[in-house]
């Protein structure tokens, strides 16, 4: 194929740019594929319940389950706390992905456990993590222990020194 003139080059450039954007969208969708938490638009919609030990204004619990890494959940008081999602029916989560927010390193969780419960009162530790994690980064973990639970919570026991702790996304996979 022989291209003639500037308009032909512009058309090829536009098509090429569209292909790049389509590829990026496809990869983004693939990274969230398999996440069994629906795209939450509030703490109770469209299904299940997102909750937390505390919430900073405009950074509610559901923001960690809205499939959007530009938003985030944040504790309103303290460097520790929990972030929870209740399905309402039992699910067997085998892995999870934690995406840290764009907030400074001091706000990033440093140590936590992922726990499961069938009754909201007794919790089983499924994963324990402790490390220095970076802002705006995703970390994938496979559970060493699994079970059928209707509720899962991330219990943050330390951050990197800030007054509050933030999480961009918590994805759960069967």
Question: In words, what does this structure look like?
Answer:
Keywords: Signal. Residues 50-170 form the F5/8 type C domain. It comes from Paenibacillus donghaensis. This is F5/8 type C domain-containing protein. Pfam families: F5_F8_type_C. By secondary structure, the protein is of the alpha+beta class. The chain has two domains: 1-33; 36-173, Galactose-binding domain-like (Jelly Rolls, Sandwich), CATH 2.60.120.260. The protein is 16% helix and 36% strand. The chain has one helix and nine strands. The strands form two sheets. Strands 1-3-8-5-6 form a five-stranded antiparallel sheet, with no helix packed on it. Strands 2-9-4-7 form a four-stranded antiparallel sheet, with no helix packed on it. Strand 5 and strand 6 (124-130) form a beta hairpin. The longest helix has 28 residues, at 5-32. It is globular, with a radius of gyration of 19 Å.
Topology at a glance:
Blueprint: H1 5-32, E1 49-52, E2 73-74, E3 81-91, E4 95-100, E5 109-117, E6 124-130, E7 138-142, E8 149-159, E9 166-173
Antiparallel strand pairs: 1-3, 2-9, 3-8, 4-7, 4-9, 5-6, 5-8
